[in-house]
Amino acid sequence: MQQPAPNPNGIGQPIRRFEDARLLRGQGRYTDDLRAPDAAHAVFLRSPHAHARITAIDVTPALSLPGVIAVLTGQDAVADGIGTLPCAVPRQRPDGSPMPRPPYRPLAVGAAKHVGDPIALIVAETKQQARDAAEAVLVEWEVLPAVTSATVALAEGAAPVWPDLAPDNICFGFAQGDAAAVGAAFARAAHRVTLDFRISRVSANPMEPRAAIAEWDEAEGRWTLRNGTQGPHNLRDTLAPVLGAGSSALRVVAPDMGGAFGLRSHPTQEQAALLWAAKRLNRPLRWVADRSEALQSDAHARDNDSTVELALDAEGNFLALRIRTVANLGAYLALLTPHSSTNNLGGLAGVYRTPAIHAEVLGAFTNTQPTAPYRGAGRPEATYAIERVIDMAALHLGMDRAALRWKNLIQPTELPFRTGLVFTYDSGDFPRGMAMALEAADVAGFPARRAEAASRGMKLGLGIANAIEISAGPAKTPGEEGVEIRFGSDGHCTLLLGGHSHGQGHETAFRQMAATMLGLDPLKVRVAYGDTDALPHGRGTFGSRSIIAGGTAMTVASRRIIDRGRHIAGLMLEAAGADIDFADGRFTVAGTDRAVTIEQVARAAHVPGGLPQGEEKGFHATAIVAPQDATFPNGCHLCEAEVDPETGAVAITRYTVVDDVGTVVNPLLLKGQIQGGVAQGLGQALMEEAVFDAETGQLLAASFMDYAMPRAVDMPFVAVQSNPQPTPMNPLGAKGAGEAGTVGALPAIISAICDAIGVAHIDMPATPERVWKAMQSTLPSV
User: Fold this and answer.
1) What is the greatest pairwise CA distance in the chain?
2) Quick one: average pLDDT of 337-343?
């Protein structure tokens, strides 16, 4: 029987993004574009010291300046009963006691714990007046010793960040896996390989800095916060208690957003302070960070020092993996600060049959900003550990790097496969994906390209990495998502999403789902999100979950719409609802040509007299559901890096990715997500790093003059192919794609550079200076 042609607007089609026309024409609406009548301007006075006691604050000179409305301090917030920001990831110290939770206040009280810690909020009629007033606030400081490195913080005699809570600077100790089995495997191993490595500290740096507009409605007794956030409902529910209110007292509206990457996944000091001040002053307030302020106050990410060990038998089979990590948490615990270093350790298994894995993580306080999830949130770090130590093992054994990986890959016939740490992979074909990548990257032609580079005096290297990550997890406890399908009296449809789109392409992908599931014309579908008053519940957009969790909710809501539509169509066609079939947007009496469209059903459900007396009006359905379980997108990355031996400069000349993200909703969106992820991985691998002065704790990369960001000239063309292996864990068979590019990019790029210059390992970022020095250490002595 011939299969019907796929819907040209539906799932699987490479449709261009609907939202791009609006955004490219300058019609995007970002936080600073929104109007707030009679809004005053807010500026935060921030600590210039990494660690200092506040002995006195005199706000009188500032209050006397023109246009100044108020200067508020942490003591004022405490007096008004404003609470502290929460941490949602509980951990224990090595002795089993609960981890200390330092008071993370909207404005610091008593002492500042990092450069950029806010200590006062200045409100004025104009932004410049507020800035001038901030300079007039007199603060007396007692400067204290500071520590910015996690490893240094844990050394004996290090200056304590919180002397009364954690004099040893240890926040938590976390272990996962079978330590005894790993120890036994190492004892019998024929080969043991060890690698010390660092995952550098980075800043998310979205194009749009953080901004907010806070309003208090005295008549309703309710706040409205307008700002970029990945999860409006989560922000509402975690921020309202800080204000001493229930979640219904706070409406969160998230407009267009110029990037998020995990940075906008948690409540912040500024949000809480602005809401408090807006009520206290009964005046709308607006705040926009400048770039240097953002670099000194945004949550940073990564920043781990690790030792990883791999045990192999005489034939090169993996026996066990062991890793010990020291994680820099910063001075405070934000909502998800412990998450990245502990919650995605299962990725250490990679796509390999390693029987036993054990991981230990020690979280340390330092005088730096708190760390938070950043694209991948622990997944890139785990993949980097396993893939880099495999390269070291290949070098140790004298084996080809691809051959060693091939030997240890999980085979399709072994799925579902319970790994040596936490995860059980439900689906995939890892050998096929790796074979596709080796062919697509023309690895067979690499020797010729290397010879050509050598003829120009350049060194060319090839890097390889297999990546896998958990998506829409953690496993066994996937988060629910909300979707409402709401038809109007004109037959057009509005999709209300609990997630938020800030580059992912939701306005296109969910229209494609509506086309496939309901037979709707995409031009008659509106996609809305980002307002907690519009949809009662949602989780948000993070962890590559939107298509999985949101798609599951969309599927369930569509089924409910169809069931409701069958009933209404039966009334319209004088047939029993059970005798009504639905396909391609039409309700048909089975075995006849009598039919009505879904748009006609929608109109009948709204217009007077459209339905018999006593029948419920309206045509809408809501679903707040979770997929069956987490999924595991995976892929293989091949990178070629060319190094100039005279300068150490690195150019990425070729990059190939073959990814399995299950069902592909839109190939163009998928490629964009993968390419964007690779760009962020490239930035960290080659140039990005938040560097602090070891003595003073000053951030030495507080502007884009010092914090290097990748530009178009740094990026190669990233060739992307798909190896789709649909998962049974959700109705779409999708696995998630948002973080996949970054997960594989870090190890693939560093692998290529090491291969080019002939060293076993080089830490990120592989700057020209670092690469040049590594080459000098490998040169033969004269």
Assistant:
1) 99
2) 94
